[in-house]
Amino acid sequence: VGVATVALYLIFARRGRTFQFFLCHHKGGAGCFARLLKTALSAQKSIRTDGVFLDLDNLTNLNMLFGCVENDVDNLVVICSRDVLTRPWCLGEITTARLHDVKVHVIEFPDFSWPEDPNDSESATDMSNLSQFGITREMVLDTLAWLSRLPSLRIPLILTSALVDNLVRQLIAIGLSETAHEYNHSGVVDSETVVVVDPTNLEAMSTAILIERLLFPLTLHAPTKLPQLMTVGLPLPSCVEQILVLCSNSCFSQPHVVSCLIDAAKRSLAVIPIIIETNFRFPSESMTCELRLSAQPVLDMLQADVGADAYTRVVQDVFQEIGVMIQPSDTSATMGLLKIRAAELAKRLARPMARFRALTDRPVAVDAPLSLLDGRVPCGDPSMEEIDHDHPLNLVEL
Question: Model pTM?
Answer without folding.
Answer: 0.84
